[in-house]
Amino acid sequence: MKPADIIHLAETELDAQRSYKHRINVCCSSGCIPFGALKVLKAFEDAVKEFGVQKECKVARTGCIGTCSVGPAVMIEPGNYLYQSVTPEKAREIVRDHVVLGLPVKDMLYGSKAYFEKQHRLVMKNAGKIDPYRIEDYIAAGGYSALVKCLIKMSPKDVIDEVWLSGLRGRGGAGFKIGQKWTFVARAHRSPKYIVANLDEGDPGVFANRTLAEADPHAILEGMLIAAYATEANKGYIYIRAEYPLAVDTLKKAIDKAKAMNLIGQNILETSFSFDIELRLGAGAFVAGEETAILASVEGNRANPRPRPPYPAASGLWKSPTLIDNVETLANIPQIISHGGLWFSKIGSPTCSGTKCFSLTGKVNNPGLIEVPMGITLKEVIYDIGGGVPDNKKFKAVLVGGPSGGCLPDTMLDLPIDYESLTKAGAIMGSGGIVVIDEDSCMVDTAKFFIDFCVEESCGKCTPCRVGLHKIQETYARIIGGVGKPEDIQFLRSSCGYIQEASLCGLGQTAPNPVLTTMRYFGNEYNEHILQKKCAAGKCSFKHNVKEAEI
Amino acid sequence: MALLYFIYKNRSVPYSVVQRKALFKAENRRDSEMLKEDNRKVMLEKTIKEHQYQASSLLEILHKTQELYGYINKDLLSFVAESLKLPPSHVYGVAAFYNYFRLKQPGEHVVTTCLGTACYVKGAEEIISAVEKEFKVQRGNTTADGRLSVFITRCIGACAMAPSIVVDDEVIGKATKEIIIERIKLLLEGKKP
Predict the structure, then answer these.
(1) DSSP summary character for residue A496
(2) Do B91 and B18 belong to one domain?
(3) Pair B34, B113 in one domain
């Protein structure tokens, strides 16, 4: 296949798509399938046949539309009519009324308009619109044109310059400048060079990367290919959680299709550029998402992090220069190349350009996958997009950044979402989880939950994390068991400081965040628990569990 | 019932029913004997060969082993270690490090509760406690009669419909303890829900 063939294919495919008057996109992502999305898809196909409108109506299996709480979701184009909680019976009704008669079924349409209004879909622009199993759909939507542009018009240095200009920062949590990272790898004059795409989304409560892989796998592949072209890498691995079977399947098929079309492999599009991509399955270790631990895991070892320097850019996989990027970062790349770095740098806030995908969950009315420009406030996310807290309960806290993030109270809701502001408030961007907590939850108990998680997931290599977290866990067991002492607070604070300072990797360095933020913003709850043995939320039993408290 | 379950569990393996019956018999024999006989071992060997006996493919091979056998016992671990020319301690270390690998045989029915943040906030802990109490089994273990295992997992990614609980490969979203206990009871009675 030649570069011109891609453009030709896009045109043919677009012509084919234009011949349909309606397109029914049925969301078949992991969120909607348990609610029966595949049956709904079948029902739509049958109904279209039954009414004899196959020629004017296309039924497509797509990835996540974003409204995961009201699945199965179905979007009908043109007009972007979004139907919620569709059942096979209702599918027939929709085809009859909407497609055949042209009358949208009003009482089944998704209610909250604000859910989409405040979002800015960049990475997820194809999600819910294209069939992830068809590479033609992606190409018709402008896919792989950025790769063609790189191969024909740009030198590797031009590509890196464009990424520098965009101001794109790593979406995996740390927020490192991507242009800088790529320059480091490009400058390493050793071969082979590797690229690892991080899809080990171990944070509980986060599903943004999975949704991306399920909805638009080729965007990740194209981003990787461009990164490989810019840094002159030879081989790429996508490290993905085995707990995401549908995403694994989608990516596998996408790689096969791309290989068949000579977009991955030797002499890509008949140029001198060669790059191979392989999948690597994770196996349920939170720490494997860490930069150096992921390398150990790809090499087939235990996911133990190692000290830096040397940084992976100098000595990574099998001691070769390695570029590690989150898949969301990579999915931004094709757009930056197509539209230019300057265009990208104007989106979002001045220090953080672009958008970020968040999984909005917990006690909100409209949970789901959202993509918002950087710099939006937490209030807008929770109240405008999320629709506020259900059942007239009172908002208590919002957890940003997964188990090693921070719990922020209602006074912090005007905080803009960007790397610096969040870090200042004690939270982190993390992999993009926003969990809303209402008055029914006890903050001491919530902090204990995260510490339990980190204790379980600590790899045990370095002492501050292994022993320190355990000590904190014991202290929490005492406080919740009703035998907490006032000096426990001071103990928690000082041990958190040691763990942050002395731990080897990101897990240990950020694990104390929930403890510190809950103590900072909800200190009165700790005092109530310790002094009055009272839990306002009624979660803690204060039954002293000897076994738990004296481990 | 056990046979049906077995066929169901191995539905991705392209065997005929006759072969499956033979496999089922083998399953009841001692594990090491079983290793020698059935053709799952052949398939495992094939996978190892495909990966060119590379030590770096250890995780992939452990995944395949678990996919074929449902869990990874000692014999299988030594077999993998031998094939890849790795110390058995290393293979055991890797298998034990990752939560995904099961080193003990799971029960006939498996209930996995998601204890991710979203599910926890929405009360998954109460559901799993109720299940533990009702069926007299601790999380991470199997009932004495080997019919029900209760596991917990950190996030299956179905957070928007929290709390979500996986009962025998089926994800149940927005679960309550009544629904889950009812469902498990039906399964244990051998009825299809």
Answers:
(1) H
(2) yes
(3) no
**Interface-testing mutation among B128, B154, B172, with chain A (most A C-beta atoms within 10 A):** B154
Helices B40-50 and B74-84: crossing angle, nearest 10°? Answer: 30
The amino acid at residue A22 is H
Q: Is B101 on the interface with A (CB under 8 A)?
A: yes
Domain-located, residue B102: no
> Can you tell me the distance from the alpha carbon of A94 to that of A88, in angstroms, rounded to the nearest whole number?
10
> How many domains is chain B partitioned into structurally?
2
Query: Does residue B193 sit within a domain?
Result: no
Residues B60 and B129 in one domain: no
* Range of the structural domain that residue B122 is part of: 109-188
Query: What residue ranges define each of the domains in chain A, with the CATH number in brackets?
Result: 3-117 (3.40.30.10), 147-345 (3.40.50.11540), 355-438 (3.10.20.600), 443-549 (1.20.1440.230)
What torsion, rounded to 10 degrees, do the Cα atoms A55, A57, A63, A67 define? -170
Q: Tell me what ipTM this predicted complex has.
A: 0.86
- Tell me the three-class secondary structure of A65-121, residue by residue: CCCHHHCCCEEEECCCEEECCCCHHHHHHHHHHHHHCCCCCHHHECCCCHHHHCCCC
pLDDT band at A426 (very low <50, low <70, confident <90, very high): confident
Q: In what order do the strands lie in the sheet with A235-240?
A: A276-281, A235-240, A194-199, A322-326
Look-up of token digits 């049958």: A46
pLDDT per position as a tens digit, A76-117: 988 888 998 899 999 999 999 998 988 888 888 887 778 888
Residue at B62 is within a domain: yes
* B135 and B83 part of one domain: no
Cα(A277)–Cα(A224) distance, integer angstroms: 9
Q: Does A84 touch chain B (CB under 8 A)?
A: no
Mean pLDDT of chain A: 90
Chain A residue with minimum CA distance to B55: A300
In a mutational test of the B interface, the residue from A30, A243, A297, A461 whose CB has the highest number of chain B CBs within 10 Å is A243
Helices A487-502 and A469-480 cross at an angle (nearest 10°) of 160
Closest CA to A329 of A161, A199, A194: A199
Residue B145 within any structural domain of the chain:
yes
